[in-house]
């Protein structure tokens, strides 16, 4: 298939036609019900899962992983290192009030209140595969908006070559931050062309409701073609910068976790193979796909790069 340059890519280009038509039907139906373009229907917070109004964005037709699995088998080291720790401990995190500072190489740096930010967006559902670097995967129906829209709002300058993300630092609620498992706060980064790719999403919900704390409330990044650790949770700061920013896992084990961390079955982790994965809920392992199956839309971003070197 012809790989187009990013600026030419529209949502319809990356949508299977059947899904695109279904999405249009959904929008038409939603408009009839007066639902289109509504923001967050509720205040959210630690305990309440409020329904969200959204349209259907480009998605995989695969069956989503059950919600119970998505919300009980997590990596969120700020709440502990076991998979069950986040569901148990993340309820302590107060997600209101919450602000996100977006600054750096831009003309209009701004601090967004989370509810104002969400109200100003047209939320859509994106059913994406998530592949963890540990060798398991899920299919998750996120609700959110493209990261590129948030970046455009602050008017980046030509010095914005990378985007740096930071999670909240609050050891009184994020008790895992009292231990030195990583250098806190958790940090991540993307190149500006990755960050403004239409697939890169800011998620504020899943399964049609506000994001549970263990999944990164009130807002997290989702970069479906990269290993899950790039998808940083509970973000408080996004900075446009001119150099590749430091990232938490790369700092902790640079030979194991690179800055790019594109899903790549041909490049093994130093301690295990990346050729296959266990889809949560399935018995047999399945083959891992290059770029987690999103290659036809994102491979062009890495043309000419040695992906063994830039792992
Ligand atoms: N973000 C923060 N702040 N802290 C973390 O420990 N873990 C990452 C990523 N984002 C992590 C994080 C890892 S390793 C993965 S696989 C995904 O979140 C898991 O997301 P999920 O729990 O919603 O499936």
UniProtKB/TrEMBL annotation:
Its cofactor is Mo-molybdopterin. Mo-molybdopterin binds at residues 74, 77-78, 132, 167, 215, 220, 231-233. Its EC number is 1.8.5.-. It is an enzyme of class 1 (oxidoreductase). The chain crosses the membrane at residues 26-54. Heterodimer of a catalytic subunit (MsrP) and a heme-binding subunit (MsrQ). Part of the MsrPQ system that repairs oxidized periplasmic proteins containing methionine sulfoxide residues (Met-O), using respiratory chain electrons. Thus protects these proteins from oxidative-stress damage caused by reactive species of oxygen and chlorine generated by the host defense mechanisms. MsrPQ is essential for the maintenance of envelope integrity under bleach stress, rescuing a wide series of structurally unrelated periplasmic proteins from methionine oxidation. This is Protein-methionine-sulfoxide reductase catalytic subunit MsrP. The lineage of its organism: Bacteria, Pseudomonadati, Pseudomonadota, Alphaproteobacteria, Caulobacterales.
